[in-house]
């Protein structure tokens, strides 16, 4: 509870969230969401569908070139919800396939879901076996998302002034 970001401070109607640095400075850096609507009023847990949209999880959410909406979620292009969660994991976890899943396929679905979510990059990404990949994997995916969200670049490292991480391609 000490670090909990209160529901009363959560942005409404698609407004911007505070910077993580501001949340840390205020010791309110833990976001807690629930899928049970009544818990927002009774327990102070944020009802996730008031704040985010989400693509389909499991095998149905892993189709190349498609970013299907999760049934319970508002439409992906609903800008009233300011957070975007992208799921990319199998219905039955398969460790032996996770290296391929968490590499180029993951990067591709992030690009696809950006388009489906009205040109909004994901704020969260959910995968299985996050340490397994053929290359940069889930860490590269997070670097891509943070770069896109922070400065419009393909890698967070390119956002640093004087960076030699390569050209920024917003």
UniProtKB/TrEMBL annotation:
Domain of life per record: Eukaryota
Molecular function as annotated in GO: phosphoric diester hydrolase activity
SUPFAM superfamilies named in the record: PLC-like phosphodiesterases (SSF51695)
GO biological process, one term: lipid metabolic process
Pfam families xrefs: PI-PLC_cat
Protein name in the entry: PI-PLC X domain-containing protein
């Amino acid at each position: 509870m000490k670090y909990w970001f209160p529901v009363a401070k959560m942005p409404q109607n698609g407004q911007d969230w505070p910077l993580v640095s501001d949340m840390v400075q205020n010791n309110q850096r833990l976001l807690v969401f629930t899928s049970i609507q009544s818990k927002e009023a009774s327990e102070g847990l944020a009802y996730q569908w008031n704040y985010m949209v989400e693509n389909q999880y499991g095998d149905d959410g892993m189709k190349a070139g498609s970013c299907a909406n999760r049934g319970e979620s508002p439409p992906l292009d609903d800008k009233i919800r300011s957070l975007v969660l992208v799921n990319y994991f199998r219905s039955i976890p398969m460790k032996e396939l996770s290296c391929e899943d968490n590499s180029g396929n993951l990067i591709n679905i992030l690009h696809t879901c950006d388009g489906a979510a009205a040109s909004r990059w994901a704020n969260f990404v959910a995968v299985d076996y996050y340490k397994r990949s053929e290359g940069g994997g889930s860490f590269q995916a997070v670097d891509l998302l943070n770069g896109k969200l922070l400065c419009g670049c393909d890698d967070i490292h390119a956002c640093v002034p004087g960076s030699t991480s390569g050209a920024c391609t917003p």
